[in-house]
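Minutes, methods subgroup
Present: GH (chair), OT, SY

1. OT presented the first of two proteins processed in the latest run. Sequence and structure tokens recorded below as shown on screen.
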Amino acid sequence: MEVCMFRGRTYGKACGQLYVFEETWDTFRPIKRVYWNDKKFVTDDSVYKTNLFDPVYGFGTQEMKSHCKFLTGTTELGGKELNPTDFWNWCGTPTEWFHDRPCVLSKCASKDWKNYILRSGSKPRTLRRAPGVRVTRRLVGKGVKL
């Protein structure tokens, strides 16, 4: 299984399925995706958490629970820390363009770009004018057209 770190949590990917390592459960468990919900990065595991009193809560089925126990025993937990763009490329999650970078957004998330930039710890990428476009008054006097 491939392993990486994102926002202090360990994620794994095997056979197209994403897993997150839960330290409180001391095992990997399956997730659907990781997305931005306008305040923080959230793991989508609602498919596997339907009944709180189910003995396989968080895993969906008994087969998935035993598979996750097997993955926990055979996987080394060390991995490199990834930024959000590289993480979503690693996951293979379909992204949408969010101002200047690809992102996975919640359906009900507002498009607050400043909050995303603040939480992701990055700087906005802006386009500057080409250096040849800048013309000063000194150059206009010499016959340069605007």
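2. SY then presented the second protein from the same run.
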Amino acid sequence: MEKYSWVNFLKELSIQILNFKKDHSGLLGKLKEVKIIKDKFDAEKYKNWKNIEPFSFISILLSHSSIKKRTIIFESVKNIFKIKSEVPTDWEGVVIRNKQNAWFLSNEYESEEDENIDLLWNLFELTVNYNEKVKNKEKYEKMFSDLLFKAKGIKNTYKSITFGLFWINPLNLLPLQKNIISFLKKGYNALNDELKDDYLDQIFDNKSEEYIINLILNEQEGYLKFNKKVERIIKYTRFINFLNLSSISYDNNTTKNENIRKRNENDLNKIKKTQNIFEFNKNIIFYGVPGTGKTFNALELVKDHLNNKKDNVLNITFHQSYSYEEFIEGLRAKIKNGSVEYIVEPGIFKDFCKKAEKSNDDYFLIIDEINRGNISKIFGELITLIEDSKREKFKIKLPYSKEDFTVPKNLYIIGTMNTSDRSITSLDVALRRRFNFIEFKPRYDLLKDFHLKDINISELLRTINDRIEILYDKDHIIGHSYFLDIKNATDLSEDEKFFKIKNIFKANIIPLLQDYFYDDFEKIALILGDQFKEQKDQQFFIKKEFDKDIFNSQYEFDDKNIYEINENAFDNPLSYKKIYEK
């Protein structure tokens, strides 16, 4: 199922609706042709109508909560308007008004002419025709803000107009809905103080979501100003863009907090099946703790998108000594006729861009450990060119070759980063601004059926992570991938799988905990539940006994707990089970 499939359909439908700006009776006639709606159409009530505006037209189509009925409606719309886009297969993120409030106006539809209807048509037209190529963006935004501000005169409607604006342009215009504002407040409050904004501080300081919406719309250019500010800070929250925010907040409004937690854990599984994610994002960073499948999912996502065209994918890894010369271009020394001469040699990124320019296919650069490189040093002046709006429009003269260089639109960059190495807030600001971020969390659901020697592996990992988060932070918890291969190994016996679990604890998990907690064995023992285990042979860390006279009896020293690893504990299934059992 294609995610956000309604976006392209409504965009194309909006263009068709615009043809009826001077033919309102014609648009009313189209509405009466639509299946299901025509059966419910109250001919007596609407017989005197002479007018209709576009927002109500779309609102009526969306107002049926039954997905089955909505599909029938939009199949009918596709045929009536000869829409080329496929009928939407999902409605995730779309905001709707219920049937009782589907019409945006009241008695205006019976008039030959009405200024409110004209106002909504003009606002609709301006929104449909807006794109990144608008020549005078400042003039456009002024006209848009003036029209929206005039909509204040439409009683009980102008707030919902933002729903209609979102239907037409969901990537740039946010619907002002209470649950969306609530989600934004939470995400904003969790940001580092350095990322915050005086304007949004003022907005979000007001407690009531209703009051916040009024505050935004009561300012002459408040709505666009709010959108721009939110767009800037949204990438530092767990959302990708306005569409993602709307879908998550909509889920929260209808399925409660427990389902949201499950949705977050399954985000990437859904994204992996989504082909149009790249329509909205050319620069993405998959971030999270080690062992959550960031690189694997990046490769799988690209593989699905390209239908296994391996030549269109380049996978590299950043490190501390990675340089501009390797990535873009640099001077290389060559010996010719016994003397040294320097030639300009293109780097990996420049070569890959040139390759993409010559093709109509999509190309993907996957950068592992993107946070380990010095971004300013590696990208240099080209960091600006990777922005979606700058692709192919801006050129920069390269310092060595003096060539004009641009980044093609069909080249996508996916970075991966471990938050245990470095948090998002510590990333280069220029990088943060130009990438969308998708968080990977441990997928306990993938391990829920994995029981070994009566050990519930999912509960084992969840308990360890809960304790790490309390004693350290959430950026250092442990991913599910450490155990997933063992679960899926159908050729291994139970004893062989248990042997692998022992090795993971010995070679991976315990060394990781020692690194995180600087060999504070008491904290590590607390995470592994050793303090709660009555049997010593189940404890991974035990106090080491030593002879106090080792320095001779005349030397006095304070009592000190010294711990050592108990090798026998790894062989006992109860050592693992007692980590989570109370």
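Chair's summary of item 2: The longest strand covers residues 329-336.
Next meeting: continue with the remaining queue.
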